[in-house]
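The protein record filed here.
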Amino acid sequence: MKASHYIKRVKESKEFKEFIKQDPKAYLCSLFFIRDFTEKKNETQVDFYSPKKKTIFSFKVNGKVEKAPNKKAKTIENKKFIPKPLMENTKLDIDEMKDTLADEMHNREMAYEIEKVLVFLNIVDGKPVWNCTGFLRGLGLLQTHVDDETNTVLFMEKKSLFDMIKFTGNKIGAQTGSINPIISGQPEIKAPDIKAPKIKIQIDKSDMEKQEEVKTGKTKKK
């Protein structure tokens, strides 16, 4: 389903009509999706920015449209941020995002199964970019940025269990490499309970030690 479908549903709702009547200069700025391929629990949120109130107003689209609590627009560094208007005619289909990521993983010889994906769409450097956080089987994370106009993967990085633990307060926001999206308008997503086998943790620790050796230029004697 394309983003325009959800935007249309919001604009046709009574909640939105009441909102835009009171704040006619508010504009579409971002969308947020959760697609859970294991438990089939999906969420969709459409965000509008009010220049008058300098606030993001969000609408959840599930069985019905519901207005969510409004929040200030800030970046992940907690800095104030004015989002750019997002056009409604985005090209990519949210339901095809998993296949897009899987194809790129195959090209990079990354053999992982995506169990859940958090997707945030907003304007970056004048164009719509999909910022995706994929939850991989085995408690790994996949961080990806996809250009909407060309369906090109701009950035992809696999993160470990320990990267997940480092997420502030064990909560997951729109973590990025070079792109800093709005995060205040997103619903709070808690990281899953992490209970990995000891052997998995030992392997990850070993990888971290190797990375530290490379950074410091020191190699441990065996």
Notes: The two ends are 55 Å apart (CA to CA).
